[in-house]
Amino acid sequence: MTLKTICNMKILLDTHILLWHLTDNPKLDKTISEQIENPENLLFLSMASL
pTM above the 0.85 mark? Predict the structure, then answer.
């Protein structure tokens, strides 16, 4: 099985989107939160955010 067959999208999160998602900020569109929570997507976080 390849990475392509197990993930729909590769998503790079920046710091403010990650924080908005974790705090349920209403500025973050619900469809974006759904994509972040979708287990078929592969999430990446910049080392600058850590």
Answer: no
